[in-house]
Amino acid sequence: KYYKIGNVELNHHEVSMFYSFNKISSYIKDYHKIICEIGGGFGSLASKLKKKHENLCFIIIDLPEAIILQSYYLLKLYPEKKFCFYKDFIKLTSEELKNNNYDFIIIPPWVKQKITDLFKVDYFINTHSFQEMDREIVNDYFDFIRKTINLLRF
């Protein structure tokens, strides 16, 4: 099913992403630096937010199957941006990761704890995937969020 808005036809997913984009974007301030999306799908929301908020670093944590799609999609949209993928992430020192000013850091969940020691995240986003996870995995993510959230930026 498609929804017609002006001359543009959008499917349900696109309408949902634009709704999320507008809602989230209204909270992002110029002084925010890092957003982490857990379960970013193919990268639709991150791509829209990056377009509006160019100076933000996006950390995307997802399963390998989704990372393949996100990497392809975001690289096609933003070939000029600086990416850090899993193979780089595990090799780089903490100082190298901090100082490289990445636009996108795309990693699987099993290395997310390294983020806690490196960055303070201004916003965490999860639009759909927590309801698909076991309770213990969601609890682990909430523990990760508690340790990593930048409470000074609110």
Quick recap:
The chain is α/β, with parallel strands linked by helices. It is built from 7 helices and 7 strands, in the order ββαβαβαβααβαβα.
Task: Describe the overall structure.
It contains seven helices and seven strands. The chain has 154 residues and is of the alpha/beta class. Strand 1 (2-5) and strand 2 form a beta hairpin. It starts with a strand and ends in a 6-residue tail after the last helix. The mean pLDDT is 89.
User: Percent range for helical residues?
Assistant: 40-55%
What is the distance, rounded to the nearest whole angstrom, between the alpha carbons of the first and last residues? 39 Å
Widest sheet: strand order? 5-6-4-3-7
Quaternary structure type: single chain
- What is the structural class? alpha/beta
**Which overall shape is indicated by the principal axes computed on the Cα atoms?**
globular
Count of strand segments: 7
The H-and-E topology, N to C, reads as: EEHEHEHEHHEHEH
Mean pLDDT, all residues: 89
Q: Approximately how much beta-strand content do the residues carry?
A: 15-25%
Largest sheet: 5 strands, parallel
